[in-house]
Design a protein that fits this description.
This protein has about 150 residues and is an alpha/beta fold. The chain has a single domain, classed as Nucleotidyltransferase, domain 5 (2-Layer Sandwich). A six-stranded mixed β-sheet has the order 4-5-1-2-3-6, sandwiched between helices. The radius of gyration is 14 Å and the shape is globular. InterPro entries: CbiG_hydrolase (IPR052553), CobE/GbiG_C (IPR002750), CobE/GbiG_C_sf (IPR036518). Pfam families: CbiG_C.
């Protein structure tokens, strides 16, 4: 598993909208669901029905990060409106990149954020430190980083 899907969502986004967005991103970019290590988001959204339920329905593990951690991640598409509302200029791209780095040492954004009316999704690929050595299969539950909190369905 070498992909992390980052998701940002309004409190009004439901599981169907988020799940459809994730499926569309994977399909449009020829990415495989079986390569997804987890869905990553901000702590504020992990406990809400939309993100939590979409991850559960799709069969993906959900991890959550504090917005202070996400705010430190450099992203290609920061949004000042998001920063004003959440405290970070990115949720989807930052969560994808941070989650992939937590699992594999480095990360590359392979899908920049895509949006619906109430949600965004981005995908990062785990990049092994030595390209000659394939990345180990990711296990989000054993990432070992204190700023990652698994969310139980």
């Amino acid at each position: 598993m070498t992909l992390v899907i980052g998701v940002g969502a309004s409190s009004r986004a439901d599981a169907r909208e988020i799940g459809d967005l994730i499926a569309a991103v994977l399909d449009r970019d020829d990415l495989r669901g079986e390569d997804v290590a987890c869905v990553a988001t901000a702590e504020a959204r992990a406990g809400t029905g939309g993100v939590r339920d979409a991850a559960r329905i799709l069969g993906f593990h959900l991890v959550a990060y504090p917005v202070g951690v996400l705010a430190q991640v450099a992203v290609p598409n920061p949004a000042e409106g998001v920063r004003a509302r959440t405290g970070t200029a990115s949720v989807a791209e930052a969560a994808a990149l941070h989650g992939a780095r937590a699992l594999g040492g480095d990360a590359r954004l392979v899908v920049e954020k895509r949006a619906t009316a109430r949600a965004t999704a981005a995908v990062a690929r785990i990049v092994p430190a030595n390209p000659m050595i394939p990345a180990k299969p990711a296990n989000p539950a054993k990432a070992g980083h204190g700023d990652r909190r698994p969310v139980k369905p």
